Structure formats: C-alpha cells, structure tokens
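Researcher: Batch entry, complex prediction.
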Amino acid sequence: MNITEKILARASGESKLEPDDVRFAKIDKIMLHDVSGPGVIKTFEKLENDGVIKIDKLFDPSMIWVTEDHFVPSVDKISAENIVKLSNFTNKFGIKKHFKYGMGQYGICHSMSHEEGLVAPGELYVGGDSHTNTTGALGAFACGLGHTDIAYAILNGQLWFKVPETLYFKLNGKLPDGVMAKDFILRIIGDITTEGAAGKAMQFGGNGISDMSVESRLTLTNMTTEAGAKNGIIEPDQKVFDYISERGLTEYDAVYDDDDAQYEKTFEYEASELEPVVAKPFSPQNVSVVRETTGIEIDKSYIGSCTGAKYEDLLAVAKILKGKKVKVRTEVLPATISIYKKATENGLTQIFIDAGAVVGPPTCGACCGAQMGVLAKDEVCVSTTNRNFPGRMGHLESKAYLASPLVAAASAITGKLTDPRDV
Amino acid sequence: MKGKVIKYEQDNIDTDVILPGPYLKLHEHSELAEHAMEGMDPDFHSKVKNASIIVTGNNFGCGSSREHAPIALSASGITAVLALSFARIFYRNSVDGAYLLPIEIDEKAYARISENDELEINTDKNEIKNITKNETYSMKPFPELIGKIISAGGLFKYKP
Ligand code: SF4
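Model: Structure tokens for the complex:
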C-alpha cells in the first residue's frame, strides 16, 4: 500500500485497503474556522430543532482546534457576531485550542496547523476548508469537508471515506534560482488541469522533494485542491520531524509507502527545466511562463494567504524588495502571528515598509474577496494566493494572476508581470 | 422527482460563482438563496421560479468546501443537478447534507437535454425521462453507501 492507503487502513482498522474501498475511519484531528465553525453550529441547531440529534457533549473536544481567519478583523456586524458565536461554542463544549484574533497567536488555518504543530505525521485530519490538503506535506492524510461532515466527525469521531487512487509526482533535482515550489505546482496544474486529480491523492516524491524545505512542500500540497485532489501527501522525513519538534510536537507514529506501493500514474519532472510561471485569469490551469507574459501591467501585488505568506515566502519577497521601492500598491499579510513576529524580529517588516508596502494582520482577507484590499472593476493583481476564478478577489471583472512570492515581489517593483531573474 | 431544466452549457462552474466569498459569513438558508449563482447568472432567480433541475458540464462545484453552495441552490428550489462530473466536496456536501441530488449523466443526455425541458428522475431505475422530448436517458447509479445515505435523508439519519 502507499502512504494514503496505509493511513486510511490504519484508521479504519483494516490490514489492507485498495482504491475505491469505502470505510468509516477514525478521525484524529478536526479544524474549524470562523466560516465553517458557524456553519457547523447552524447544522447542529437545525438537526436539534428537527429532532434528529440531541447534543450534550462532543466526541472528544481535545481533537478539535479553532482559528479565526476569513473575516477578521471583523468586516461588519454579521462577521462580528459569528466570532462571538464561535467563542460561545468553544466555551460551552470545552474546546481549549481556540486561537483568537487579537489575543496572541492566531492566523490562517492551514498555516496554523504546521506553525503550532497541531497535526502529526500519520494522522487522519479533516478541516472545514478545502485547502486542508496543505497539511499532508507533514505526512498526514489531510482533507477538506463541508459543515455536515465536520459536524458528524465532531459528534462521532469518525467519517466515511472512499480510498483514492494516487497520482505520483516525482521531481528530479534542485529547483533553479528564481523558481519556487509555487511554480512547480502551477506547472503541474497547467499540465493536468483543474480536474486532473479529481477525487484522487496527489503524492510528491523524488530527490527534488527531499531537497525542498518543509514550507515549500506545504505550497505543493496546498494547491492539490486546485487540481481537484482529495488530498496531497508527502512521506515524512527528518526535515519534517525537526520542523514539528521545534514546534513542540514530538510524539507521532509516522507512516511510509510500502516497497511495493502502487500509484495509478507517475509523472516525472526535471527541476532544471522549470521556470517562473503565472496562472492567468480565470483559472489556475491557465499557466504561462512569466517571460512570455511580460508587459502585462498590474495595479497591485498581493502577498498573503495559506499558499504564499509563510515565513519562507516573506523571506523571498524581502530579498527582492530590499532597498527598492514598489511601483504599485503592495500588501503583505503574514499568514500567522508567529510568522509576523519572526518577520519583524528579523527585519523583514522594516524592508517591506521601507519599500512602500503595507503590512497587514494575518487574515484570509482579499484571497476570498472578503475584505482588506479587494479588487475594483478592471483592476489587475499579481497574487501569491491559489484561486483566480471570476470575482474571487473582488469585482467580477477584476483579474488575478497567481504567482510565486518572488514573481509577486519582482512585479511589485516594476509594475508589470516580471520574472524575478530579470530584476 | 419532476422538474424543468436550467441549462449551463459549460465546465468548471466553481463555488465562487455559485455563492460568492463575501456571503460566506451568512448562514441562514433563505439569505444564502438570495445570492445563489450571483457570480454568473443574474437571471437565476427568475428562472428558478419555474425550474428545479440544473443541467451542466464537467467538474460542477469545484473550488471551495463551502456547504453554502449546495444550500444556496437547494434553498432556491433546486432539487437536482445533472452534470457530466462533480467536484468531490460539492458532491459529498449535497449528499451528506441532503440538499439536492447530484446526478452524473453521459454526453448523450447532456447534448439532448435543453433549457426548459421537463424531466422526471427515477433513481430506483437509474433513469431520466425527458417528458418534453419523449426520450429516456440513463444516469450513473449511486455507489452503494451514497445511495443508502440519500435514502436515509442525509448522513445524520443514516445508521451504519
Ligand atoms: S487564505 Fe485563501 S485559500 Fe487559504 S484558507 Fe483563507 S480563503 Fe482559503
């Protein structure tokens, strides 16, 4: 069995599982945020009112963690009330791990999961958000679900899963200068399309992946969602164990591929052939080499989200912005307070401000068109986020080009789409 | 189940156009209905007065995990979506939350069914009857567990 099949087999008490097998499996960790949390609360209210269930206690409050990210700082009365509802819920049911805006560490859910060491290798982790796939880079089975499923998991500690087929992406060699993990995953989505991995697992391996930092790997698994994947996953190694133990997570039961692991299909990439790319509007699969799109003028550079605002991403941006001035509006929103703090301690925040950029609080913000810099009609943005559907980041007729932090920074100082190797 | 058709002849209709991001803060089903399909079809609300079945292409509901998307459609009066294929979370949300039937159809049915056709869906026989055109198409049967969850009326009513 491969790592995905083994984690699902272990969680469902089976010695062997194959693709398409359907089983109820035991959940280890559950994540909620300020959109899915109130959604789950609403689901519970409805089910109780309809007399379907009665909720006195949850299956195990210690397996649940909660953060506030989509609509903080509160945009309006409704989002403020959602935050209050969420606190009432976590208080009532004894959920201790609630990371609150304005009370120390908090941030975008998929960055919190690794920054706080909340999910361990080998675990079965579900979250009320589609990019839950991100955390699979730590060697967990991580997948996103809707309110009803999460509500069910919270009450019963288990859920049904269909074992996915696995697509294996092998990277040979080290990424060249100027090329980031974001360029690799965009290239893959450009090749296989946004339904290329529908319902499947996307596993990454090869010496190019071993060579990558944990944070780069998290960028890969993050955007498996854009290829339609059920989960993204990478076998854990010493880099992962060091990364999580620095964050206080020292107990885990890691899972690896068997020697005879099977994949539905293997795709092989040479790192030396990869180049900085962008995904043009209005789909993550519209991928073009940056040098072939130069000249496209932008109104704004957005550096944020669970895809492109980890510490390493900010470091890449700082490398380009140091001593330069931005030509277009540029926003940097570190994904969590811990990342913000580290960026400040190491002088990155100063570099951003000196360059003329704004540094904002951790939030999903304009990534989902919620707030904090949404786009006007006809505005063009280069963005380190993961989606560029119509209206995703603001007006239906605004345009977002998805890119790596290096491309977003290089474009910020020239005012047009720019290859970071050309500045 | 009987109803008239709203047809969107395109692939990859995503959750951001079915229910745009700024409304994720809403959770009342009736409020979500007001914004259904706001990102792509300003006439949806007038169309859904007479129709209850959406017919569309591949990868319907791709994008986010927001259960708001099937809720907004169902609360607007949509009872089934017939698509060439579905994105997995939208499909799962529709079934587990018992909002609407996500039915996979083939290219032939997709080509033949037109806007405003009246359909009758029979999930026991895995058949779709086009009353307007007097034709019958097959639908892809639901996998066993999915079928049981649908019959039970959603995941919470299903007893494993
Ligand atoms: S940053 Fe964007 S993609 Fe990530 S969880 Fe928030 S809204 Fe979703």
